[in-house]
Every structure is written in C-alpha cells, then in structure tokens.
C-alpha cells in the first residue's frame, strides 16, 4: 500500500535536505523519483529544489489549478515512477492534496510532501491544512527555539529587522524567518507579557 506522507516543520528545520537525501536514495537504487516544487513565485517550467547545505536537484513546478494526478499518471505511463516528492507542500491547493492521495491510492506510488505547518501569524497554509487532514502519515521535522525548546512557530522579520504582525501570507522581498517555540512566538508577537524576553532588538 502506497501512502501519502506529510513531513512538516517550522522554518529551517532541514526539510529540504531530508527530501533531497530521500530522493537521492531512490535514484541511487535505479528507481525513478519525480520531484515537484511550488512555482507560484517563480517563472518557467523547470525549477530547482536546493537546500542550505548545498544539495540541489531539478524539479517540476506546480501552480494553482494544475492537475497533479494527471501529471504523475502521464509521466508514469511513459516511464515507471517509484516515488513522488513535493517540496513547499504548504502551497498545494486542497484539491491538489486529494490528487496526490489518488496517486498513492490508484497508481500505487508513495507521495512524500515536505512543508511548513503554519505561517508567521500561526495560521495553517492551505496545503498543510489538507495534508494534516488526509495524509496517511504525519512526521514532524524538529528544530529548536533559541531557548532550546522545540520550535513549532515562525516569525517574519521585515527588512528593518522588526517582527511583522500582519501582512500577506507570503512576502517576496528581503524578509527573514526565525523559528521559535510557542511561548517565545507569543512574546515576540506582542501577545503575552515578555517574562524572559530576549527580543531580536537586544541580541
Ligand atoms: Zn523558546
């Protein structure tokens, strides 16, 4: 039985490195892995999945309205696909997550999705919401807050280095993201009294 997997984490947890390593393991055994990455903020047809430690692989782009079941089925008819990997899976549409479920159920191909659980405001992304709802297996990729606790949240820092409290879900600019535990996320967002506040400005 092929499964639909969702590996989720806050920012910078090494998800992409895990994806590329897993895809490499398939290819090393002579198996065919099909790779997708979100093309919402990129041009062209071919994209690249690259990790911070320098690994890189070519990937197909997915955008809103694409039928991912049809794309995998067509590729699979030409040459056997042994696994499908999706990076930036938080950007999948609800319907596309169902299509990937069908890839597992009807084509018998495992689908491994990697992405963020929540945005900088602590809200689920569309793809994450659907994956958390229907994936067969959920796997948390752990990363740590500056305090050493598990980081499950992310704050967005604007070009001025200040924490953004509102704005579009995705910013295309010089923003940076920092992973935090829930307690420190609430403090940085100004939602709770900063008990042991470290603060970005004081670092
Ligand atoms: Zn913390």
Automatic annotation (TrEMBL):
<keyword id="KW-0808">Transferase</keyword>
<keyword id="KW-0547">Nucleotide-binding</keyword>
<feature type="binding site">
    <location>
        <position position="147"/>
    </location>
    <ligand>
        <name>Zn(2+)</name>
    </ligand>
</feature>
<dbReference type="GO" id="GO:0046104">
    <property type="term" value="P:thymidine metabolic process"/>
</dbReference>
<dbReference type="GO" id="GO:0004797">
    <property type="term" value="F:thymidine kinase activity"/>
</dbReference>
<feature type="binding site">
    <location>
        <position position="145"/>
    </location>
    <ligand>
        <name>Zn(2+)</name>
    </ligand>
</feature>
<feature type="active site" description="Proton acceptor">
    <location>
        <position position="88"/>
    </location>
</feature>
<comment type="similarity">
    <text>Belongs to the thymidine kinase family.</text>
</comment>
<feature type="binding site">
    <location>
        <position position="184"/>
    </location>
    <ligand>
        <name>Zn(2+)</name>
    </ligand>
</feature>
<keyword id="KW-0862">Zinc</keyword>
<dbReference type="GO" id="GO:0008270">
    <property type="term" value="F:zinc ion binding"/>
</dbReference>
<keyword id="KW-0479">Metal-binding</keyword>
<keyword id="KW-0067">ATP-binding</keyword>
<dbReference type="InterPro" id="IPR027417">
    <property type="entry name" value="P-loop_NTPase"/>
</dbReference>
<feature type="binding site">
    <location>
        <begin position="170"/>
        <end position="173"/>
    </location>
    <ligand>
        <name>substrate</name>
    </ligand>
</feature>
<feature type="binding site">
    <location>
        <position position="181"/>
    </location>
    <ligand>
        <name>Zn(2+)</name>
    </ligand>
</feature>
<keyword id="KW-0237">DNA synthesis</keyword>
<feature type="binding site">
    <location>
        <position position="177"/>
    </location>
    <ligand>
        <name>substrate</name>
    </ligand>
</feature>
<keyword id="KW-0963">Cytoplasm</keyword>
<dbReference type="InterPro" id="IPR001267">
    <property type="entry name" value="Thymidine_kinase"/>
</dbReference>
<dbReference type="GO" id="GO:0005829">
    <property type="term" value="C:cytosol"/>
</dbReference>
<dbReference type="Pfam" id="PF00265">
    <property type="entry name" value="TK"/>
</dbReference>
<keyword id="KW-0418">Kinase</keyword>
<comment type="subunit">
    <text>Homotetramer.</text>
</comment>
<dbReference type="GO" id="GO:0005524">
    <property type="term" value="F:ATP binding"/>
</dbReference>
<dbReference type="GO" id="GO:0071897">
    <property type="term" value="P:DNA biosynthetic process"/>
</dbReference>
<feature type="binding site">
    <location>
        <begin position="9"/>
        <end position="16"/>
    </location>
    <ligand>
        <name>ATP</name>
    </ligand>
</feature>
<dbReference type="InterPro" id="IPR020633">
    <property type="entry name" value="Thymidine_kinase_CS"/>
</dbReference>
<feature type="binding site">
    <location>
        <begin position="87"/>
        <end position="90"/>
    </location>
    <ligand>
        <name>ATP</name>
    </ligand>
</feature>
<protein>
    <recommendedName>
        <fullName>Thymidine kinase</fullName>
        <ecNumber>2.7.1.21</ecNumber>
    </recommendedName>
</protein>
């Amino acid at each position: 039985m092929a499964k639909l997997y969702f590996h989720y984490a806050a920012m910078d947890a090494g998800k992409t490195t895990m994806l590329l390593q897993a895809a490499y393991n398939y290819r090393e055994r002579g198996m065919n892995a099909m790779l997708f990455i979100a093309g919402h903020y990129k041009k062209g047809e071919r994209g690249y999945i690259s990790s911070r430690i320098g690994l890189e692989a070519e990937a197909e782009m997915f955008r809103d309205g694409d039928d991912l079941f049809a794309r995998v089925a067509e590729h699979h008819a030409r040459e056997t696909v042994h696994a499908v990997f999706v990076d930036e899976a938080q950007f999948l549409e609800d319907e596309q997550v169902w299509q990937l479920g069908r890839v597992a159920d009807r084509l018998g191909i495992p689908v491994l999705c990697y992405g963020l659980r929540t945005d900088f405001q602590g809200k689920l992304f569309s793809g994450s919401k659907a994956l958390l709802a229907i994936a067969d297996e959920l796997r948390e990729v752990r990363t740590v807050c500056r305090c050493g606790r598990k980081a499950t949240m992310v704050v967005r820092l604007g070009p001025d280095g200040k924490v953004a409290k509102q704005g579009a879900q995705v910013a295309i600019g010089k923003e940076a993201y920092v992973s935090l535990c829930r307690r420190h996320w609430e403090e940085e967002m100004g939602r709770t009294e900063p008990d042991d506040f470290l603060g970005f400005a004081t670092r």
